[in-house]
């Protein structure tokens, strides 16, 4: 059996401010997680991998990219572990070490989101979904049935609603300025 490597949990403690070793695997996080059923791992298993220092198994899976950051897990954890922050940290490590899987679901969604807001002044969901699917051709036909149903019920507007592009560009320029000052 491979030795436990504590470096990953130490990094999580330093950067995400939470102690993965407090987890006793009650799985309350996983039972409340809205996306736990859609990947090969669930939140409690990710925390266990952090305890073991098994970064490869975390980054080889899809779960960290499916996580919506809803924080239900964090709210439910009896040990006060900020599981959502652990997921953030795993994504940061994946990007820093250039280990984002090619077909990782929604890995590019924030970039696409920003570009969409720059273009239209607000989020254009249909464009966002299509661009995300183009980065992952294998997912092209996923959710088509649900999309048709939502369209039929008027839940999806096929056309963009144009917002205040100037204000959006100003806000994004401010964000870039702050990022520059921090780096
Ligand atoms: S809810 Fe907390 S203690 Fe329970 S499995 Fe999840 S992280 Fe561990
Ligand atoms: S923050 Fe992520 S891991 Fe936690 S419940 Fe929400 S989707 Fe699941």
Structure, described:
With 183 residues, this protein is an all-alpha fold. The chain folds into two domains: 7-96, Fumarate Reductase Iron-sulfur Protein, Chain B, domain 2 (Orthogonal Bundle), CATH 1.10.1060; 109-182, no CATH class. 57% of the residues lie in helices and 0% in strands. The protein is built from eleven helices and no strands. The chain has helices at 7-16, 28-32, 43-52, 55-60, 63-66, 72-76, 83-96, 109-120, 125-135, 144-152, 165-182. The longest helix is centred in the last third of the chain and has 18 residues, at 165-182. The model has no long low-confidence stretch (mean pLDDT 88). The structure holds iron/sulfur cluster (SF4) (2 copies).
Shape: globular
Strand count: 0
CATH architecture tag of the largest domain: Orthogonal Bundle
Overall pLDDT score: 88
What is the makeup of the main sheet? Answer: none
Highlighted features:
single chain; 183 residues; mainly alpha; Fumarate Reductase Iron-sulfur Protein, Chain B, domain 2; 11 helices; globular; binds iron/sulfur cluster
Chain-wise SSE layout:
Blueprint: H1 7-16, H2 28-32, H3 43-52, H4 55-60, H5 63-66, H6 72-76, H7 83-96, H8 109-120, H9 125-135, H10 144-152, H11 165-182
Helix pairs in contact: 8-9, 8-11
One iron/sulfur cluster binds at residues 32-35, 43, 67-73, 83-84, 87.
Question: What's the quick description here?
Answer:
This protein is mostly helical and 183 residues long.
